[in-house]
Amino acid sequence: MSISRAEVEHVARLARLALTEEELTLFEEQLSKILDHAQTVTSLDTEGVNPTFHSMPLLNVFRPDEVEPPLSQEEALANAPAPEDGFFRVPRILEAE
Amino acid sequence: MSAASLLTTIGLEVHVELKTATKMFCGCPVGFGGEPNTRVCPVCLGHPGTLPAMNERAIELTTKIAMALGCDIAPNSIFHRKNYFYPDMPKNYQISQYDLPVGVNGALEVEYDGVAHRIGITRVHLEEDTGKSIHVGGGGRIHDADHSLEDFNRAGTPLVEIVSEPDIHGPDVARGYATELRAILEYLGVSDVKMEEGSMRVDANISVAPPGERGVKVEIKNMNSLRSLARALEYEQRRQAEVISGGGKVVQSTRHWDEKAAKTQELRTKEEAFDYRYFPEPDLVPIQPSVEWLRQLREELPELPADRRKRYAGLGLNAYDAQVLTASKSLGQLFDEALGAAKTADAKQVANWVTNDLTGLLAARPEKDAVPISGANLAELVDMVAGGTISKGQGQQLLGEMLDTGSSPGALAEAGGIRQVSDTGELETAIEEVIAANPDVAARIAAGDNKPFGFLMGQVMKATKGQGNPKVVTELLRERLKV
Amino acid sequence: MKLWERTGAELARLIAGREVSSVEVTEAVIARIEEVEPQVRSFLTVTPEEALRKAAEVDAAIGSGEALGPLAGVPLALKDIICTRGIRTTAGSRILDNYVPPYSATVAERLEAAGTPMPGKTNLDEFAMGSSTENSAYQQTANPWDLSKVPGGSSGGSAAAVAAGQAVWSLGTDTGGSIRQPAALCGVVGLKPTYGLVSRFGLVAFASSLDQAGPITRDVRDAALVLQIIAGPDPRDSTTLPGPVPDYVAALEKGIQGMRIGVVKEISDAGVAPEVKARFQEALLALEKLGAEIGEVSLPTFGLGIDIYYLIAPAEASSNLARYDGVRFGLRVDAPDVASMHAKTRAAGFGAEVKRRIMLGTYALSSGYYDAFYLKAQKARTLIARDFARAYKDFDLLVSPGSPTTAFGLGEKLQDPLTMYLSDICNVPSSLAGATAMSVPCGLSAEDGLPVGLQFMAPPMGEATMLSAAYAFEQELGFSARPPLWAGGSGE
Ligand SMILES: [Mg+2]
Ligand SMILES: [Zn+2]
Known about the structure:
heterotrimer, B: alpha+beta, nine-stranded mixed β-sheet, three-stranded antiparallel β-sheet, 15 strands, elongated, C: alpha/beta, eleven-stranded mixed β-sheet, 16 helices, 39% helix, globular, binds magnesium ion, binds zinc ion
């Protein structure tokens, strides 16, 4: 199972990681190796087996529709790298919504 | 290929914010406007280590919507994570639903041009809303902006997505569908459904193609009213028809409706397809509604527009009246209350007062949606006119005062000395005075000249300060002059 | 005997009996941190003022005759992946270098309410991704038994601190062995609870369907005491199991007589070092001597654990770590547009292992690969759970080494992710089954003098049974060895 350079670059874009040439090369090789090892799983016969998304079978866990006090604007922005008049400032958005 | 023979296919994707007290996955209050980032907490800001907790009320309201739209309610429904980066989305994934939504396979009937159109509902699912970006500089347009400011007050608001089948074949029916859907949501009381405030948002997929052929889907966003929905679809229908007629190919894309320019503009072409990497949300557990719970929710469903329209038809109201009284939940309620309280007036009379006189007066008022009049007072008014206590014109005058003061028509008539005189004795005296004052005119009429009759009538009404019952006055005058 | 050398249970008794104050104990622990921190480097943040303030409160409460809980007054260190209101929480990552949470994790709140001063936050592999604590963006924690060796990971700081006397007890988190493996390598007790027994609210998420917080202590009783406080349902974590919580301390005395204990056959292929095997065999004899029936059991899918784990955990992590984008908190590297600000920030803020797993996980979820990798792994996970369920028809508990080797050298496995991943081979399967497991010291390797751990595995909610067996084993073995730097410590 080998993963191509193009795939590694595509995945890096999806994951929003600006990787260096070195990193791209390294991951291309390491991911292939890890996925090779994972063939023990990918080649497994799981016909008719249900996936285990939750290891405990819980159902219908709800919260009552009751208001809890929110943070103050100050607290909300306390960790912000770029607060601006009560907002979180970000650079211009190029991609469409 | 002439544009006329092309077939238009439209599917609508409607998002509505639920009117819950708190957000979908945290206890922050839901609201509109206000200071930025004042209705937020670690959960809806996506802070490290926080976890979502499902708002039970939101699940109930979504289930009611699905029921009202005739959907099958999923015996097992789960949330997924929809992964993509966007600065107004705190976690950079949206907790949404994917292959197991709350409801599927519903339908909605839209009447247009006297024809009933059945529009299929593919799915009704629940998700969390995003925050809001304010674009600074470049005239507030996203791409020309210098930078943007993020406000997460809206982030995490329960948002229901209602997706229709591509069963809509014209802009008018599309508008009719959205109108009917909005009415249903208003009746259910689950949302403010205000398109201008974004509590109801409509996106459309439209394709134009020769019959039998598959068109190219174009998605249209940013239509902020039902009117702009119809306009945008008409524009896009024309645009695609022209492309095809010109031998060109429509490009699969997402386009943005520009209200001012009155045209759609391309946002992105579908080549840059997204890869959302959906997977089941591990922080939340499945929803499996019990039979008892579903039965209870069904019982709580109110009368819906379609049923109300049928009921009004049954009362003998014409299609127009039934439509007007159904389109607005509050007008319909006023009509039902008034009809219940009316002693002599019948359904048609009450309906006339609501759909003609009242709607006219309301349209002229600042807050159009508000109906500041009780069913009992309206019933009293309609009875007074029907019973002849006051004239139609006096009734219209009183209705205006009722809207301003909120008082009952009886009280207002009393205070303003507004009444209608039908007592013959009182009227005969007035008639004698008028004849005495105009002997020659009376003589001419008696001699068979009917022209001045109206003049004498007017004199009598004047003598009774306009309160004489015209019908009675005419009869008495005829008798007196033997004509 | 110096205060910091005592167990939590002993200190709690002394404090409750007013033989010593919480302030004295806390001061002794803080002094011990200062004393050996230059060698061990297990703390990322120390909070002596806060800890002493809390200790004084507890002393005052005791003075006024208030009846406090069984942990009252005994300081407890938290892995720096557990959010603490007003106290910097980094998850061992540069991207959270300056992050000060506006809220506390449920486990932190419960321990606070139980009267435990919190002297500091311990080092870890970045976002708990690692088995040696070498992936910390800040410092390299050393193994107190041999400063040239790793303490294991990802809860290496919590395990090393307890082993070195810098903490009486601590909390770690375990996603695929991160409590048990470092406990084994540092010669202390580490317990990974059943998934859902302990709230995850406030644990910086790595793999949501696997993460659990648990105690790292010097003996089994202390583990039971801490678990008792942190276990139980939490409305803020929808995946917590409904109560009630069993009495773990009472269960300690139940003994092991007649218990059926299964030895997982497949671990012989797990690259277990000879000296580890030797201690493991001796442990089995001790268990037998205590009246347990030992038998062999086969879990055919046991060996698939690591491969399944490295498809599931990174996939969930790739989504959980998307929130580190330079907008609301944490590091930001400026750029002309949002997309490049995101990409540059994340490239600068995440270390190599975190990037590797985000890449792996994003790939496993991406269109065209979801079914082949992520979904397939979740199905394989079902097979593992079935194997365990089958095994537990015939056995009350299963055992294996806590780790296939003793502590390895710093930098030894850093260049080869796969061999590093394989050091969790004994721990990952029970995590995938959502079950509980714990590592207990079972002796030292004659070869390198480093500790060896015995792992007990129980079915979900089997903590009580597991603790009674582990306690009996501990009493029988009487493991009392301490690391070299234990001697000559101050803090009377
Ligand atoms: Mg949506
Ligand atoms: Zn919130």
